[in-house]
Structure formats: C-alpha cells, structure tokens
Amino acid sequence: MIEVEHRAPSDRLPASNRGVSETERIGVVLDWVAASFDLVAVLEAHRFMDDPQAVLDDLDGIVGNCVPAVAGILASHFVPDLFDLGEKSRGRFFNWRVALRSGDQHVGLLEFGGIHTMRQDGTRTARIELTGDGCRLYEASSGGDHAQRWSSLASLLGAVDARLTRVDIAADDFAGHWPVAWAIERYNEGAFDRRGQRPKARLIDDMGNRTGKTFYVGSRTSENQLRVYEKGREQGDPESPWVRYEGEFHASNRRELPLDMLVDPAPYLVGAYPVLDFVEGIGERLRIAAEKVLANCKRAVMHFRRQYGPMLNAMLHASGGDERTLTNLVMGTARAGLPSWCARPDDAAQLLAAILFAPVGHIEAQTGQE
Q1: Which domain holds residue 326?
Q2: Final residue of a domain: which of 248, 283, 318?
Q3: How far apart are the first and last CA of the chain?
Q4: Is 188 exposed, middle or buried (0-12, 13-18, 19+ CB in 10 A)?
C-alpha cells in the first residue's frame, strides 16, 4: 500500500464515486507523439526517388549525403514551415537523426536509415517525434484548433501506412480538485486494478518542501503508465494547486495505437483509467502556457531577490536614492536575450512588473521561502 505522508485537506479529496459537475470537468492535450511510417512512400510523393536503391544505400551508409535533403522532405510533409532542422547525427536503431527545433528549443526528431528499419513486409520505415513543446507549437500553428490540426496529421500519417508508437495524453487540474493524495487513495482502494491485478506504483515525495510530488501507476516498460504530479510546483510555484494527470501509451506486438487518439484523445485516457471520469474533451493550451509562465516568473523573482536583494540594497545606499544612478546600474547589468521560459516577452514583462513591484515581502509571505 502506498502511504500518504502529507495529506491534503479532506475537502480537496472528492470521493471516487461522487458525481462530477460540468464545471469540474477538465480537458486533455497531447503532450508527446511519435510514429513510424513508410519512408519510401513519402519520398516518392515528393519525387525524390529517381534512383531509390541509391538513396536507401546512402541512408544505410556512414556518410549520409542525402540526409539533409531527406530530412527537409519529411519536415515539409508533416510539419511544413513550422520548425527548423538541426544538424544530422548518428542514431541507434535508426542510422540518422535530425532534430526539429524552434529557435533554441528542441521540439522533436526525425529518424531514418539503417538496415534495422524494415518491417516484416519489407516496408522501409522512418520515424517522427514531437515533444510536449512540439505538440503545443504544432497545434498553435492552426490557431489552436485541435481537431483541425491533429486531423490533418492523422490523415497524413494514415496515407503513408504510419503506426503510432507513443502518445502522451495530459489532463490539467488547475484548481487542484484531484490532488496527488486523491490518486493515491484511489490506488489503495483498487480503482487502478486491471483484471484483478494491481499495477506497480511508486511515489516520489517532496517531503514537504513544496517542489512537487509525483505518483506513478504502472512502469515505463508497460503499455501504459500514468503520472500524477504537481505541475505548478514542478514549474517553480510552491503555492500552485495545479496537478497534471498524464497517461503515456506505447504500441506493442499485442496492441496498436489508433490514429484517432490524435483527434479525440480524452476517451483513451479515461478508457485506460476509468477512475478519471472527470476528464472530458480538449484542454486549454493558452491556460497551460499562462500557468507555466506565471510559475516560472514567480520562481525567477524569488531567486532574484534571494541572490541579488542584498546587492540591490547596497546599490540603493550607494546611489543615495538617485533614480538616474539606479537606472544606469540596472541598464549596465542587463544582458541580451531572455529567459528560456519567456516565449512572449510582453506577457512576461507584465508578470514580472506585477510581481517585482508588489508590496515588499509579498512574495516571501506567499511562499515562506525567505
């Protein structure tokens, strides 16, 4: 039995069999997608196979002259004009890998080439992978229309005999109605049992330091694993109630992952874990992005005050309160560039201003970290 060391208040632990109101339901987003597909079919669609065997031999070799061109074709086929391509590198199972990037951010991979990439029917395969950030940016490129964007990708994959190999489906409980302690209680009651068997589980406990707990149901080597973790605290806000339920699904010899998982993912998460009956529909990408920026912003301000507060106090005394002197000191300290979590500078600037210029002691009183 998994023990709960730091229980949440009882009013935050809804009973597993109570009704769930519409206002309490939460939606899902795709947080990782990987698929293998017929490489030759894509290359032929783009008329890159005048000498098919020469191309395949090159990809199987150690030089890979065709690698940049092949990577460009695959990117233009599945994610046109969205991401930049990294340098080619050697892979393991696949001979070559090329990263998908958005600025300095790694958002996915293209992998292809090698003698081990052939299916039993002789199909030469390649692989595309989108990370959580890759999924977010891919969906945002259609104005945030989940159905439109993922239906398009599902169609493209289906046309080249693709098979999903991994899909992560995440449900975000921003208000903390279903905290980690709730999931642990349901596990102990048998709500996650399958065919009379209780899956393995483990808890990574922050021991009260508010950096975030994580509860795992199942193992990563199995077909499914559920992670329940305090996402807001993981992002840096020790007061955040934000909890994420994230199912990781893998294809196996016994089970294929249907392409429909991309279009309508919620039923697959609830189907694997019926106790999550509060999950329904599509989640709020903009809300997720805003919560992440807010949490990172709070953390940045806390670290800034802890590390540089005394130095700023010394600057105040040295300047005698002269605003021009202080401005020169700040401008002279600033560096080009922005924090990695700051995707939209205007939004982050507003948050920083609100937090930095809050009444003295506001952040410390909120977090208890000083």
Answers
A1: 286-367
A2: 283
A3: 36
A4: middle
Q: Where are the alpha helices (DSSP H) in 163-284?
A: 180-189, 231-234, 260-263, 266-272
Q: What is the pLDDT of residues 261-283, one digit of tens each?
A: 999 999 999 999 999 999 987 76
From CA 99, how far away is CA 83, in angstroms rounded? 9
Which of 99-108, 219-228, 299-308, 344-353 shows the lowest mean pLDDT across its residues? 344-353
How many domains does the chain contain in total? 2
Q: What is the pLDDT of residues 312-370, one digit of tens each?
A: 777 777 777 677 776 776 676 766 666 665 655 555 555 555 555 554 444 344 444 43
Last residue of a domain, one of 242, 261, 283: 283
Residue with tokens 């596990």: 187
Nearest Cα to Cα of residue 178 among 16, 289, 354, 5: 16
Q: Are β-strands 125-130 and 26-38 bridged in parallel, bridged antiparallel, or unpaired?
A: antiparallel
Are 15 and 144 members of one domain? Answer: yes
- Do 197 and 333 lie in one domain? The reply is no
What are the residues facing 319 on neighbouring strands? none
